[in-house]
TrEMBL record:
Record's keyword terms, sorted: Disulfide bond, Electron transport, Redox-active center, Transport
Molecular function as annotated in GO: glutathione disulfide oxidoreductase activity; glutathione peroxidase activity; glutathione transferase activity
Residue span, Glutaredoxin domain: 18-80
Catalysed reactions listed for this entry: RX + glutathione = an S-substituted glutathione + a halide anion + H(+); 2 glutathione + H2O2 = glutathione disulfide + 2 H2O; 1-chloro-2,4-dinitrobenzene + glutathione = 2,4-dinitrophenyl-S-glutathione + chloride + H(+)
Protein name per Swiss-Prot or TrEMBL: Glutaredoxin
Any one GO biological process: cellular response to oxidative stress
Alphabetized PANTHER family for the sequence: GLUTAREDOXIN 2, GLUTAREDOXIN-1-RELATED
C-alpha cells in the first residue's frame, strides 16, 4: 500500500462529513448504509469491491484505524467503527455527531 493511498484515504476522512467504506455483498454494510441513508443521504460511500484499488484502500484503512473489516464508518473525521458500533449509537446520537 502506498503512502499516496493512505493520504487519499485520510483526505476523504477529513473532508467528507460522513464516509463509509463498504462492500456491495456485505449484509453488515447494507444495514449501515440503510441507517446512514435515513439520516444523511449525502454520505460518501466507497464500495471497495467495485473499484480497482479497493483492497489497497482497505489496507490503508486498516493501517489508519486498526480495523480491517467493513463497514468502516467515519463521521466528521471521527472513526465510529463498524455496523454494530454505528447501530449502538442510535439515530439521535448519529444526527448530533453529523451536526
Amino acid at each position: 500500500m502506498s503512502q499516496q493511498t493512505i493520504s487519499e484515504v485520510e483526505q476523504l476522512i477529513k473532508t467528507k462529513p460522513v464516509f463509509v467504506a463498504s462492500k456491495t455483498y456485505c449484509p453488515y454494510c447494507s444495514a449501515t448504509k440503510k441507517l446512514i441513508n435515513e439520516i444523511y443521504p449525502e454520505a460518501y460511500i466507497l464500495e471497495l469491491d467495485t473499484i480497482e484499488d479497493g483492497s489497497e484502500i482497505q489496507d490503508a484503512l486498516a493501517k489508519i484505524t486498526g480495523q480491517r473489516t467493513v463497514p468502516n464508518v467515519f463521521i466528521k473525521g471521527k472513526h465510529i467503527g463498524g455496523n454494530s458500533d454505528l447501530q449502538a449509537l442510535g439515530k439521535d446520537k448519529i444526527k448530533s455527531l453529523i451536526g
